Amino acid sequence: MAAEVSERVREIARHRDLDESEIIQQAVEQGLEDLWRDVVVDRYLAGEIEREAALEELGSERLREIERAKAAVESDIEWGLGTGSS
Q: Origin, by domain of life (predicted)?
């Protein structure tokens, strides 16, 4: 695994004509941004932050996707519970 990661770093660095350290820094920054968005989504879905705060962090398109997915899951649960109790 470590060898594969190292090779990918080298290949990306060659492709972008950057130092490997710059690639690692970008990867950490991008990874942290992804992890932060995940935290924002989790907190929003748990009701810990308001929609406006989630909107500011995630953007309108991503927030709409999350809300559609949540509504679909809730609908499936309601359907399942209704079907299971018959």
A: Archaea
